[in-house]
Amino acid sequence: MIRTSSRAVGAALLGLGVATGVAVATPTVSSATPAGPSAPEPCVGTWDVVVGGLTNNTSVGFLNEDQRVGYNSFDTRSGVRELDRLVRAHARECPADFIHAVGYSGGAAVVHQWATENGKEFRGKAGIVLIGDPKHPAGPGGVGGFAATDMRWVPALGGANDDYGGLPALRVCNVQLNGGDHICNSGVGWSGYLSGVHSDYDFDVNSYPVDADGVVLR
């Protein structure tokens, strides 16, 4: 998606509002040749790639994304590998595009771990959004995600940190809303999770500024 970039994280981020614009190219079709289905434009200015959470192996459920990552959602490492493959392939084909990687829940852990390992190679060319991240670090939002408490022993998923490889990272967590989201704030119990607070997020990628760096807590 071609969007206006914004580094103003304050009030705009708290409302999760961002002005968007989409440039649409209309192909010219010869009158002598029947028009077939058009392929998506490979280079889009801002390339939104999304990663879904546990059991969502095809990363469906987001809005306005350009690419969904398909992976074994029970294996964080497989998601990191597939995200890295897709990002590098797109960067080769469209080197001027800005890569906007958005992950939710276990998919946020995938994006987080990918940035930790590869972010330094994409500084100035990529940014990430982590929604309900189990690897969310301790801080004003609580004691950190449940990867640091409940799941420390799981490879790649285990542990929480604020290492994003130097990339701008917007972290979104429902720390208190309806009891709080245990996945990204393990200091609260599971009651909020069981009542649906973990799915009470905005999944429209256009809601998140592409190069925002900060935290949104509810």
What does this structure look like?
- The chain is of the alpha/beta class.
- It has one domain (43-217): Alpha/Beta hydrolase fold, catalytic domain (Rossmann fold, 3-Layer(aba) Sandwich).
- Helices cover 18% and strands 14% of the residues.
- It has four helices and six strands.
- Strands 2-1-3-4-5-6 form a six-stranded parallel sheet.
- α3 (106-118) links the parallel β3 and β4 (126-131).
- α2 crosses α3 (106-118).
- The chain is globular, with a radius of gyration of 18 Å.
- It starts with 9 loop residues before the first helix and ends with a strand.
- Mean pLDDT is 82; it is low at 4-39.
Number of domains: 1
Q: What is the average per-residue confidence, as pLDDT, rounded to a whole number?
A: 82
Shape: globular
| SS field, number of helical segments | 4
Distance between the termini: 27 Å
Could you tell me the CATH topology label.
Rossmann fold
At the first level of CATH, what is the class?
Alpha Beta
CATH architecture: 3-Layer(aba) Sandwich
Spatial extent as radius of gyration: 18 Å
CATH homologous superfamily assignment:
Alpha/Beta hydrolase fold, catalytic domain
The H/E string reads HEEHEHEEHE
- The strands making up the biggest β-sheet line up spatially as 2-1-3-4-5-6
Catalogue the unreliable spans: 4-39
Please tally the β strands and state the result: 6
Structural class: alpha/beta
Helix content: 10-25%
Strand content: 5-15%
Biggest sheet descriptor: 6 strands, parallel
